[in-house]
């Protein structure tokens, strides 16, 4: 969920909670109706009447509350209560507050309006009043305040909550009108929320501020914020203040920790993160920084998949998925750690730091050693970090020995050869915005960019541009797609009004591109059999505003293409499952296993499927053009498939057309028709490794036999 979604979710949740809470109070008191006029009273009349004017008491409470609660916080800190760890009531709100005005408005409704209505009705109107039946009023005030504090489920904030509850209780007892405590509670929450919002908007990092101290107690602002909101349960967003990139060592990874607030130490991070699982009865230490923790998890999964040769585990899905925070930083740390893996493994073995400590799992150790020796450094936030820091000398000694053993002067000499970071390519979704509008927006946001020289709707930006969270990417106006992956739709160039069949369509990058090239007029039939990917296909089509796409979840090979149902199809895009050897995921694979071994059995079975799918596509009765593409660098999935199907294609009146004549890289030379095919090389062309062939009907009059 985006931050705005979370805030909206919090609002909806709080509306429901408030309605349910008030309903329960109503049901519980119904049999005593009509209630005495003093009970559960919300009466706006006579705001300043003596002795019970609700507004007079409310305003007095508004003035007193910061003094009373502040004094209490200070007093408790003298007894060391500020050392208590745990989640504070403000935490969830503080995370979401880094966002926009709609989020603020939703949170204001939750904390300054709905929460006070519900909580004052329950704790003062109902509980306090009911308790007075069994105990003196002062005791009922305190007991209901303790209940109020406990209900917030925050040990750290409990004392202040009880003190604030007591003040609210006494004011209520004096005014006998729930509007008074509601006013105090609402002003309190609303003021703190507004201050926090203004601080965040002016670039202040709330966590850093709280850890540095603010006011009488370092815990003050956060801890004096007694709200029960569902946002407390959404405490997983990071603030977005950019952090400068530091270049401490020659081999250091350059990454922007734009949203890694947890990377900085805060007072709240004194306790270790919860253990993931036990080792010999002891809990494992997880990294304290969210980026390092996610990177360690991704590394563990990737190494495991690599060891067991399990497919379908990608670095991108593990580090850039929707559930990942600080995606760019997580991707960078994971990739860089993999790059340094061999040397870090050697350092870990030499230094023996894992032998001394069974609670530090190897993936976490790899990430922390990377951070310590080659990355942005490690702070003593938790036991894992503290252990690695305590071993700094032996780790550095192990690194020196490793360099010495290889006769290397700098660690960069020991790193596997990797390609430079590529420029970012982005496709303008012309269904939603014009290319000109996209250029001026991206120029305003990033400064430099250039239109791709080959592809009509592709823009090239420097590799440093962080586009994942760009609003135009989120609203489907821009689509993050490699240059190579944008070639097929342009090569096919369907004419307006045509029907195009995208046979293996999910997640729909090329499908939405086809729809855009059709000007959203005509039809794209998008087929995919995988249910999870199919959902992404539908979501992406919707996000792109491509209403001409019709999605079919099915096995393409089983579609009756030679029947009337498909007689209107003019063109086909076939981008079948392949080894993906040209893509970034496999480049990481190669880092893990530099001896470029190829799984021949798998390649053969993929090639067999690709050929079968291509032959099947040629059954379409009115087919005019067909593009076959794969993101594979192996000719068995490219040129060889085309060569095998060529006799059938010729027989049906198709020939190979050479798309993109100005593009330099063509099919492998040993294939006679190679020059009519298109290739992209991951390293040399700085995009995905790719293959593409275009068939065109030679004589449209003859039809297909
Ligand atoms: C390389 S991906 C397609 C990528 C897609 N063209 C894009 O640009 O976003 C291959 C897709 O083919 C699908 N697929 C594999 N075999 C299939 C079959 N027999 N029928 C339909 N879809 C199939 C897979 O589920 C996968 O989503």
TrEMBL record:
The chain crosses the membrane at residues 6-28, 54-81, 101-118, 130-152, 182-200. Residues 236-279 are annotated as: Disordered. Gene3D superfamilies: Sun protein, domain 3, Vaccinia Virus protein VP39. Belongs to the class I-like SAM-binding methyltransferase superfamily. RsmB/NOP family. This is SAM-dependent MTase RsmB/NOP-type domain-containing protein. The keyword Cell division does not apply. S-adenosyl-L-methionine binds at residues 504-510, 528, 555, 575. InterPro entries: MeTrfase_RsmB-F_NOP2_cat (IPR049560), MeTrfase_RsmB-F_NOP2_dom (IPR001678), NSUN5_RCM1_N (IPR048889), Rce1/LyrA-like_dom (IPR003675), RCMT (IPR023267), SAM-dependent_MTases_sf (IPR029063). PANTHER family: 28S RRNA (CYTOSINE-C(5))-METHYLTRANSFERASE, NOP2 YEAST -RELATED NOL1/NOP2/FMU SUN DOMAIN-CONTAINING. GO terms for cellular component: nucleolus. GO terms for biological process: CAAX-box protein maturation; rRNA base methylation. The active site is at residue 631. Residues 414-698 form the SAM-dependent MTase RsmB/NOP-type domain. GO terms for molecular function: endopeptidase activity; RNA binding; RNA methyltransferase activity. It comes from Apatococcus fuscideae. Pfam families: Methyltr_RsmB-F, NSUN5_N, Rce1-like. Keywords: Membrane, Methyltransferase, RNA-binding, S-adenosyl-L-methionine, Transferase, Transmembrane, Transmembrane helix.
């Amino acid at each position: 969920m985006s931050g705005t979604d979370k805030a909206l979710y919090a609002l909806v949740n709080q509306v429901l909670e408030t309605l349910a809470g008030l309903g329960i109070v109503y049901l519980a008191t119904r049999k005593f109706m009509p209630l005495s006029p003093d009970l559960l009273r919300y009466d706006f009349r006579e705001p300043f009447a003596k002795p019970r004017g609700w507004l007079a008491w409310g305003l007095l409470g508004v003035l007193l509350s910061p003094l009373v609660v502040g004094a209490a916080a200070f007093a408790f800190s003298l007894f060391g209560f500020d050392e208590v760890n745990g989640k504070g009531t403000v935490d969830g709100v503080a995370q979401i507050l880094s966002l926009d005005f709609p989020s603020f408005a939703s949170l204001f409704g939750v904390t300054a309006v709905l929460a006070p209505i519900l909580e004052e009705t329950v704790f003062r109107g109902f509980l306090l009043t009911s308790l007075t039946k069994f105990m003196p009023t002062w005791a009922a005030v305190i007991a209901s305040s303790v209940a109020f504090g406990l209900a917030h489920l925050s040990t750290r904030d409990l004392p202040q909550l009880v003190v604030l509850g007591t003040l609210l209780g006494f004011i209520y007892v004096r005014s006998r009108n729930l509007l008074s405590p509601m006013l105090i509670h609402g002003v309190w929450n609303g003021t703190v929320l507004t201050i926090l919002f203004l601080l965040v908007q002016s670039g202040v990092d709330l966590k850093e501020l709280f850890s540095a101290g603010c006011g009488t107690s370092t815990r003050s602002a956060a801890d004096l914020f007694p709200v029960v909101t569902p946002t407390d349960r959404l405490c997983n967003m990071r603030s977005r203040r950019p952090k400068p990139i530091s270049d401490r060592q020659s081999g250091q990874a350059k990454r922007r920790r734009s949203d890694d607030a947890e990377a900085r130490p805060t007072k709240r991070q004194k306790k270790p993160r919860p253990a993931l699982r036990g080792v010999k009865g002891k809990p494992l230490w997880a990294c304290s920084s969210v980026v390092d923790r996610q990177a360690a998890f991704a590394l563990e999964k990737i190494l495991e998949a690599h060891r067991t040769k399990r497919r379908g585990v990608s670095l991108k899905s593990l580090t850039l998925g929707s559930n990942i925070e600080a995606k760019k930083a997580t991707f960078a740390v994971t990739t860089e750690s993999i790059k340094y893996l061999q040397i870090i493994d050697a350092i870990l073995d030499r230094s023996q730091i894992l032998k001394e400590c069974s609670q530090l799992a190897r993936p976490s150790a790899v990430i922390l050693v990377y951070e310590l020796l080659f990355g942005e450094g490690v702070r003593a936030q938790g036991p894992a970090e503290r252990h690695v820091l305590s071993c700094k000398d032996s780790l550095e000694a192990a690194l020196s020995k490793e360099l010495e053993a290889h006769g290397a002067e700098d660690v960069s000499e020991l790193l596997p050869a990797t390609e430079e970071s590529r420029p970012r390519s982005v496709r303008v979704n012309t269904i939603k915005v014009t290319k000109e509008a996209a250029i001026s927006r991206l120029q305003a946001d990033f400064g430099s960019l250039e239109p791709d020289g080959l592809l009509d709707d592709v823009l090239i930006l420097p590799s440093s541009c962080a586009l994942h969270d760009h609003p135009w990417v989120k609203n489907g106006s821009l689509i993050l797609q490699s240059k190579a992956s944008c070639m097929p739709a342009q090569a096919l160039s369907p004419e307006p009004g045509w029907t195009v069949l995208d046979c293996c369509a999910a997640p729909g990058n090329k499908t939405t591109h086809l729809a855009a090239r059709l000007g959203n007029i005509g039809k794209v039939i998008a087929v995919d059999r995988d249910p999870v990917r199919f959902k992404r296909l539908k979501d992406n089509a919707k996000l792109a505003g491509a209403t001409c796409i019709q999605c079919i979840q099915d096995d393409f090979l089983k579609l009756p293409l030679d029947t009337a149902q498909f007689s209107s199809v003019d063109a086909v895009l076939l981008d079948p499952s392949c080894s993906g050897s040209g893509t970034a995921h496999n480049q990481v694979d190669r880092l893990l296993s530099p001896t470029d071994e190829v799984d021949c059995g798998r390649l053969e079975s993929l090639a067999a499927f690709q050929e079968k799918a291509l032959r099947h596509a040629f059954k379409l009765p009115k087919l005019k053009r067909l593009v076959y593409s794969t993101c594979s660098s192996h000719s068995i999935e490219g040129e060889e498939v085309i060569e095998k199907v060529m006799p059938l294609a010729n027989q049906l009146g198709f020939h190979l057309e050479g798309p993109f004549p100005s593009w330099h890289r063509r099919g492998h030379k040993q294939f006679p028709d190679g020059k009519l095919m298109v290739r992209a090389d991951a390293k040399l062309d700085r995009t995905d490794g790719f293959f593409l062939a275009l068939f065109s009907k030679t004589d449209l009059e003859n039809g297909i036999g």
